[in-house]
Amino acid sequence: NAGVMQNPRHLVRRRGQEARLRCSPMKGHSHVYWYRQLPEEGLKFMVYLQKENIIDESGMPKERFSAEFPKEGPSILRIQQVVRGDSAAYFCASSPQVRTHGYTFGSGTRLTVV
Amino acid sequence: AQTVTQSQPEMSVQEAETVTLSCTYDTSESDYYLFWYKQPPSRQMILVIRQEAYKQQNATENRFSVNFQKAAKSFSLKISDSQLGDAAMYFCAYRSAEEYGNKLVFGAGTILRVKS
């Protein structure tokens, strides 16, 4: 079992460009969560998805950010027109349907906006 | 909304000794889970230990144990026989068992340094 796979590991974008972050959950996990970690801070929840559905996006900025988890393929977190303040580590986690299980986290994508 | 507070930005421990990391949380719920995660410089989030609020017995995983005080809303992590590999950022986290979605709420973290 390969675990939660995130790519790329590092991503550099110029201000105004788009960033696409990918997350492949563990085999058998149908729940995906995205978190953002700003420097020297803890992780902050952004969005929770199941296949083809957004369940909770209460932590995601209303503008420029979107997420999807299609029937086939990885979950994608998209940030349009990036700004310097978007620079952070973005983590994906997955869990199986059983709610009592803890998450399994990916290694994160570090986004740097220059 | 639930909040998690880690009041120690940084802690140090001598190798082979014991250290305790503090965590308090605020919630009006009675059913929830608490976690400690370790984040080494590699950035990988590693689950250290988990506690279910309805269980009175404190969780233990090898050298790691917790002191869960539900009434005080306190959830400290004790690391015994500290090793150099324990050096990392440690995050306390809360997860509701009542609310669908079950997102994790993290504290700000404690940097643990281990001295040889």
What does this structure look like?
The complex is a heterodimer of chains A (114) and B (116). Helix content of chain A is 0%, strand content 49%. In chain A, a hairpin with a 5-residue loop joins strand 4 and strand 5. The mean pLDDT of chain A is 92. With 116 residues, chain B is mainly beta. Chain B is built from no helices and twelve strands. In chain B, the strands form three sheets. In chain B, strands 2, 5, 6, 10, 11 and 12 form a six-stranded mixed sheet that branches. In chain B, strands 3-9-8-7 form a four-stranded antiparallel sheet, with no helix packed on it. Chain B has a two-stranded antiparallel sheet with strand order 1-4. The model of chain B has no long low-confidence stretch (mean pLDDT 93). Classes of the chains: A mainly beta (114), B mainly beta (116).
Overall pLDDT level of chain A: 92
Number of helices, where a helix is a run of at least 4 consecutive DSSP H or I residues of chain B = 0
Classification by helices and strands of chain A: mainly beta
Annotation field: number of helices of chain A: 0
Radius of gyration of chain B: 14 Å
- Give the largest interface pair and sizes: A-B, 23 and 24 residues
Low-confidence segments of chain A: none
Write the H/E string of chain B, N to C: EEEEEEEEEEEE
Assign the structural class of chain B, choosing from mainly alpha, mainly beta, alpha/beta, alpha+beta, or little secondary structure.
Answer: mainly beta
